[in-house]
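Please, structure for the following, as tokens.
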Amino acid sequence: MIFWLVVPGRDSFVSSASPSYKGHRYPVEVIAHAVWLYFRFPLSFREVEELMLERGGIVSYETIRRWSAKFGRAYADGLRRRRPRPGDKWHPDEVFVKINGERKYLWRAVDQDGNVLDILLQSRQEKAAAGRFFRRLMKKTRTVPRVVVTDNLRSYGAAHREVMPSVEHRSHKGLNNPAENSHQPTRQRERAMKGFRSVGGAQRYLSAFSGISPHFRPHRHLMTASDHRAEMTVRFAIWDQITQAASRPTTA
């Protein structure tokens, strides 16, 4: 049996763009909790299955995989819609990832507050790839930054002059720590998954991961314990709103 801890007031949220659970026999709370476990922590589907079993939920790892594929991106998009307007200072960066033995490049951009703006897997580091990423960022955020801060990769400068010449460009490796630090959770997840199997699968997974994982990673080192608990309570309430889950599961 699964026990639910109901927090007063948190079940009053109603989302206008929530995913459909039609045809699913498991409660929304169970689905949302399994997806949260998978995208929040470096766990395999089998490990999530074991954690769900400890709480009394009998669900196979294959079902958890399907839930993550179906609802992960929807949950991430819902969280993104509720974020404040992106900051005006963008920090793009790229790191290589191995997919089936081939080197690909994961492009990522964050604003000055550390919010992930977008991610894109590409095969190259050239000017065209940087320009494609800049255009995608402006289209997705529907805004143009005040300043772009990058490392010393020359492709950024060439793409900047072509795509957003009126935007200030600062090129210095030491100034781009926010973007470099944002790659760390992805690296941790990549190791836990023993790498990605396809470009399309990696793009789909990382699109959901970059929307869900940062939501539960506030700047804890800048908060007191009580402030952190209060902040996480708010973030869990937003999660419940997005997923339509009235409460968080816990053991009694």
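Strands lie at 4-5, 89-99, 102-111, 116-122, 147-150, 168-171, 248-249. DSSP finds nine helices and seven strands in the chain.
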